[in-house]
């Protein structure tokens, strides 16, 4: 098998592309799309987002110390892309996309009603890395849409048709091929 050696770069794909909401001091909300995000700790539950300083949202998140991660779906793909190519400096992306802001429980940034899962986050640390600064944050509240729960309250995110982002393209997900630990389970 022949492999080409490429210059160092970001090829850790696929990734979730999430819509991150934040708000300015007057409470005016904004949405930006983030692919450089990840889960970094289970207990306490922590996540990271990496944001370029030039983003309008950067100062909003830095000043407020808060943001919300809103998971995305096939139905939200177009809005997800839009929020990643237009700036809140020039327009109201909630109005433009028709997405619905909903009051969060703890943070001032709003939840996106149409998103199946919202993670309210409080920034604990900002790491200057280079092109991006990484906001490390604790998840302080989670909201899951009952529309994707069965009669026993079991939540199935796959019913929401989540999407991933891979090297410039959005994809929907395919079929389930195994569950945690299935490789060592007796048949
Ligand atoms: C799929 C996708 C992923 C993106 N990921 C990031 C990211 O991880 N970090 C970042 O700073 N910008 C990212 N962007 C770019 C911002 O979302 C974009 O510059 C946006 O317009 C910034 O909005 P704002 O100026 O309202 O904050 C991404 C854009 C797209 C379309």
Mean pLDDT: 97
Percentage of residues in strands: 35-45%
For the biggest sheet, the summary is: 7 strands, antiparallel
Assigned CATH superfamily: Electron Transport, Fmn-binding Protein, Chain A
Rg on CA atoms, Å: 17 Å
Number of helices: 3
Q: Measure the end-to-end span.
A: 33 Å
Give, in spatial order, the strands making up the sheet with the most strands: 2-1-5-8-9-4-3
The counted number of beta strands is: 11
Uncertain spans? none
> CATH topology, anyone?
Pnp Oxidase, Chain A
CATH architecture: Roll
Estimated helix fraction: 10-25%
Structural class comes to mainly beta
Assembly state here? Answer: single chain
Q: What are the bound molecules? A: flavin mononucleotide
The overall number of domains is: 1
**SSE string:** EEEEHEHHEEEEEE
How would you describe this structure to a colleague?
- The protein is mostly beta strands.
- The chain has one domain (18-179): Electron Transport, Fmn-binding Protein, Chain A (Pnp Oxidase, Chain A, Roll), CATH 2.30.110.
- 11% of the residues lie in helices and 35% in strands.
- It has three helices and eleven strands; from the N terminus they run ββββαβααββββββ.
- The strands form three sheets. Strands 2-1-5-8-9-4-3 form a seven-stranded antiparallel β-sheet.
- The radius of gyration is 17 Å and the shape is globular.
- 29% of the residues are buried.
